Amino acid sequence: MAAHAEISIATPAFVSCQDVSASPVVSLSAEAAPFTPRDSSDADKQFSQCYAKLRGLRPQSAQLRDQLNLLFDKLLSENYNKTFNPSITIRPEDVCILLKHASSLVPFNQEHLVIKFCQLMHHLLNQLKVIMDELTLDVLMNYVTCALKKCSAWTHSDILLALSTIVYGNGPHCHQHLENLLCENGVLLQYSSPQQELELQRVSLNCMANVCLRVPGQPPLDDQYRAVCFKVFLKTLQTPKPVDAEELFYCMVLQSALKGLQCCLSGGKWKFGGGEELGSVLAILKQMTFQGSPGVSAEWPSVLYPAPLPQYEGTSSPRQPEISKPAETAKQGTGRSKPSANKKRKSRGKGKKNATDESKDGDEDCDGEEATNKQESLKERAASEAENVLKSSAQNFYPSWKQTSSDSEFSDAEGGAQSKLRVYQGRVRQAALLCLLAVVKGVEKRTLYGYWSSFIPDSPIGGPPQLTLLTTILKDTSPKVRKCALQVLSAMLDGSRQFLAVAEDITSSRTSFTSFSFSLATAVRELHRTLSLALLAETSPQTLTQIIKCLAYLVANAPYHRLKPGLLSPLWRQIRPYVRHRDVNVRVSVLTLYGALVTTQAPLSEVQLLLRQPEASSILGSYTPQDTNLSWRQRDGMSSPCRTPVKHDSQRHSPLNSHTPKEEDSSPPWLLQLCVSLITQPRESQSDSEETGMTVLEPSPVRLEALQVLSHLVRGYFSLCQSHLFEIGQVSARCLAETDPSIQLHGTKLLDELGTGIIQQYRAENNIPENQRVPLSQVVAFWSEVLSGPLNSALQNEQHPTLQTSACDTLSSILPQAFAQLPDKTQLMCITVLLGLTYSENYLVKTAAVRALGIYVLFPCLREDVMFVADTANTILAALEDRSPNVRVKAAWSLGNLTDTLTVNMESVSVDFQEELSDMLLLKMLQTATRASADKDRVKSNAVRALGNLLHFLRQSQLTRSVFKQPLEDAVRALVKTVQSEAMMKVRWNACYALGNAFRNPALPLESASWSHDAFSALCNVVTSCKNFKVRIKSAAALSVPTQRGCYGDTDRFICVWHALATALENSEDTNDFLEYRYSASLRHTLSQALLHLLSLSQAQDMSALAKSLSGEEGRGIRVHLVKYLRAEEAATEGAEEERHGDSFTPQQRVKALEQTVVRLKELQAEENKETVVAFLEDLLKSCDES
């Protein structure tokens, strides 16, 4: 329940001259003593004295009115703002006691005293940032609401001022009062009516805005009250300006309504109706974003509709703006006046502070509303390029900041009034854009996409100019407004990758209509063009930073692999000089943009070419109007020898020099050089405030961003960086040797990316030729150097657990082949450190260490080491009992990897490994995994994987021991329960796979165990009823695993499995989810293979039931799919899992297997039903021969 002066949107609390206690008049002269502010102890003392006197007053005291006037005047005369007097020690509870007591002393019939008391409430609550208790809030609310009812109308402005301060952020705590204030005939609704005078309307709108304001950590205002305020704000914005209203006061009303609307929209999802309401809000906000813009006059729609038709969008017409005077019509085309070149703009920020928040905010807003003369000439020169491209719109919307002083048509007084009006109009536009930003953040992305064309043009230039966000970015006179428009555009682009993925103009040809994909591609190109022009014209560092950030959002989400090449190359070169910009934030944002360029759809051929280009060609012709800001850097080539870590004799390329491909390939990419120099090399020059001769590195934000860009570059374009592996490793080592934990952290992450890039090269599935990989000897040398360097210190740095965590991740990114060739001492160090870190008290470190061990246990050189496997198993089992769910998740994953190693060793190592591994350890693993299968889904998914591997690994001698009997049954029943549960689908299909994995163990007593029936029943149920086709595929594959007929039990169970598979095959296309339908072919493939597998195992006792099935309707459905399977007409697509038995059979092999089944069945001594089954199979073979 705070009342903060800096944020409050209440009105000024002016105190009349006669009410303020007289102060001695001091004439100003050269001999006068300099002004010294009063000590904060004076304010404390003054408050204490007034507090004591006021507490001693009673309603019946003599001369009460005079004493109250005097005390109020003294309190109002002090400045309690803690910004100016940070040592003020006035307690909030004393303020609350004073105000409560004063409310009992001021009668409502003394209206001048009421006004002064209301001003005092505003003054103290605002400046002291008092958080009121509930009793004080209730007392003061009662007082001001009664005052509104009992006092004359001329006092209501000041009373509403106090009310707005009281309710600031306290809306949820004022329920009983809000019913009276916001009911149908409530005071706030009456005064906020457009029929009221503008001042009262504005103050009441401020009150409602403060009521709606949501303070972090507190509940929001009830939806019913918020909806009432929302309607009032929207109605105010939609109501045309009264004929007799002054434009300045009207702008203040609009600003209050917009701030109130922003309070309603901020901090949550859209809750104000469907598409019609959203369209109305977007329409009025779009209109407000051009309030007072020179040359804009359009027929604005009342509602915006998704994908609007042309008749919904008015075009700009060349009639004069609403704010122009009749005498100015002839001169409107030439623009407005501009500050004189010789006249310095006064800074009002240091003037005497009034008890008003708006006047203070106004002074702050003016800093940059009108550009300084030095920036003016730069902006005129830069903006001329934008004008040449946008000539059609320039006639209708000619920026006033491009005019010369000779165009001024106002006298000084008129110019001052117009300048002030433009400031207020700029605030309206800024508030409208902030509201629009709240809408963009609160409305679902897919809903908002339909309105994109209203704010982002999707047609190329040449037609009538559209009024969009891009118009504001290019043309608005206020850098703050342009910055807000860029923030809105950035919010729209953020997370739009899925929407923009449809954009495509590579294969588009001339047609009679414009496709949606081509329109989106045009929008992307228009965004590139507009933001590039804005980059050329902008001189405000804050707005320039936002332009570059917006470009980064665009680059991160646009599908450049579907667009014609050529969009990224100009941008790459254009932003190059800004790397040396004076402003740190600009430099950081440029690096962020370069990071997006090397991250998006990496590797892109266009980016690869840019990275391969020599330094000089990458910057040729890339100077901007802001080059004058780069004077503290060398602008000759935008680089310097001392900033590049490689020899510059071979680096300073001239556009006339020729280079062989080999020479260019041997030189590091320019971006890599830049990042390394920013990270490691000292700045070439310091600002005037810095002492010369000192070695000063780049600021930490620049170095951190450069490290991130370097990591992105290594991840996306490793092939271009691999020849400089040791140089990059030295950069990481230098970062690790520094004292800044953030630099150390990013150094370890860079090492992690290098290790991951090497591992990717050596993966068999990537098919990278050996001569294009980093030689194994270099990899071994690289890791030997890294592991003997400062990485060890990072691993042992307990003061910074995040750094330890990243260092563990780095250890896990060592190439297994290289690890095997490291010295034994180094290998032992890695293993010992990781085992020790699993006992860390920090869960992040423990998680990373357990994960790293889960990777090491897969290394060929370690997985056959029984002692290492046993130590790792014990460590993982202990971590599975940890309190932290994150630790348990990684422990379960590592246990799954460890059990994968056990099953691999069954085939690759002799039986000695199984015999040497302790039975008790295996039993403990089985029991722990069973318990973990009842944990959270993220733990459960890998716990069931581990159970399947363990059930596959156990030997006959272990299964027959009594100590294993109950844990074995518990493990299988845990898998069955998971298959039948409502867990997430990944857990269920892992459980299905685990059962299939267990079925591969011939030592499991499937034919006699009590749990066997439940296992088959669960799989049969899932294969027919589960909505997820991948789970069905896994269950069908599991049902086809047993290789002996006896594993399926008696005939009833065997036929139950058969019917389940047949039913699943018949229903394999029944789904309403397109995402599942794409797996239907793979499902049919697996089911067909499973049915043929059952036929190949069937015995004489099964013939009767099989013949009945195959001769009926079920058999005819089965025949169609089996023929397609045998002919391979329906290839297994995504979702056909490689673990399925026989999945890789060719059509010839399938037919041959079926022929062998027919021969075997003919040899069976069975009743005549056998002939029906054989005839069915021979008919299948005949159908295959005919094809």
UniProtKB/TrEMBL annotation:
Compositionally biased intervals (Acidic residues): 360-370
Record's keyword annotation contains Oxidoreductase: no
Gene3D superfamilies linked: Leucine-rich Repeat Variant
Source taxon at top rank: Eukaryota
Region named Disordered: 311-386, 628-668
InterPro entries: ARM-like, ARM-type_fold, DUF4042, HEAT, HEAT6
Keyword Repeat set for record: yes
Alphabetical UniProt keywords: Repeat
UniProt cross-references to SUPFAM superfamilies, sorted A to Z: ARM repeat (SSF48371)
One Pfam family it belongs to: HEAT
Basic residues bias: start-end ranges: 341-353
Residue span(s) of domain DUF4042: 427-607
Biased composition (Basic and acidic residues): 371-384
Protein's name in the database: HEAT repeat-containing protein 6
Organism per entry: Mugilogobius chulae
